[in-house]
Amino acid sequence: MGEMKRGKIVEGRGSQVRVQFEDNDGVISPWLDVAQDSTIGKKSYRRFQFGEMVRCYLDRKGESGEALYAIYNDQNAAPIDGDDVFYEEMPDGSVLKWEGGAFSYTNTAGTTFTVAGSDVTISGNLKVTGNLDVGGSTDLKNTVINGIPQSGN
Question: Distances in Å between the alpha carbon of 29 and those of 2, 11, 72?
Fold first, then answer.
């Protein structure tokens, strides 16, 4: 039987990390695999960042194991609170969020793409490469198409 341990990431390579454990006088682990959601078919990948607090599972001798997941704490609080939320923040500050049936993506320039119910909203510039087919009415207000101002109510 192994044991669960908590520590901070001190080094990373590929899909492995080394962890310094607080409860063992600062002992540093051997290379540990980072647990992934999926590795065949729909692949996912992540590697914990330097200094990130993680929970690990180690064998009895502490010679092998896996880094399982990151842990929020007082020094590194969760960025959002809620039971009905999925939130991913990228290293550049871009955010992917699902909350209460609405999905949004916001990049660092402030452009937001939101899907809520049957509505899709884009706040920012939209470039379409290829054809644009509209199967419904359009409402063009304060719009210029090919240099021609469009009037709308």
Answer: 14, 10, 21
Going by C-beta distance under 8 Å and a sequence separation of 6 or more, which residues neighbour residue 3?
57, 58, 60
How much is the mean pLDDT over the chain? Answer: 89
How far is the C-alpha of 73 from the C-alpha of 123, rounded, in Å? Answer: 34
Is the distance from CB of 10 to CB of 50 less than 8 angstroms?
yes
Contact of 34 with 19, CB cutoff 8 Å: no
**Percent of all residues in the chain with a pLDDT value above 70, rounded to a whole number:** 99
**DSSP secondary-structure letter at 104?**
E
> Which pTM does this prediction carry?
0.69
Measured at the CA of 22, the angle between CA 16 and CA 27, to 5 degrees, comes to 60
Cα–Cα distances in Å, from 104 out to 80, 109, 126?
14, 14, 16
Q: Which residues pair with 32 in a beta bridge?
A: 17
State pLDDT tens for residues 98-141: 998 899 999 999 899 999 999 999 998 888 899 988 888 888 77
Which DSSP string do the residues of 7-56 spell out, in sequence order?
EEEEEEETTEEEEEEGGGTTPBP--EEEP-S-SSSS-----PPTT-EEEE
What is the DSSP pairing of strand 65-70 with strand 85-89?
unpaired
